[in-house]
Design a protein that fits this description.
42% of the residues lie in helices and 20% in strands. It contains five helices and five strands, in the order E-H-E-H-E-H-E-H-E-H. Strand 4, helix 4 and strand 5 form a beta-alpha-beta unit. The termini are close together.
Length: 134
Amino acid sequence: MKINNILIIEDDEIAAMLLQYLIEDVLSAQSVVVKENGESAFRYLEDLLIDPDHFPHLIFLDLNMPLISGYEFMQLYAEKFAVHFPDTKLVVLTSSMMRKDQDLSAKYPFVTGFFNKPLSEEQLQQIKQHMENT
């Protein structure tokens, strides 16, 4: 699967910018969109329901955010989008490597990875290979 559209959901502006640069360097995506919280990301995805060709193939999701947390976003995503976009995968990024966080994320079949921030180039290459092989 070619990764054309990517969404980054990250409330830390510097972390989002670094991830965006890394993604642009390693992946040849047509579009990388950054949203600062789960609420704005959810609204963005709702707007894309009328334009599914631009729906993200890969979403990088921070867990700890204001308004709608990463956990809440995953639940909303499961309810509203997962059935319509079964090939879209989420990668959870967090500064916490608590087992509880991993277990909560793993219950969603669309979550394809759980990584500590910052994401390394090697980890991004692993994600790319996984996406290309699915």
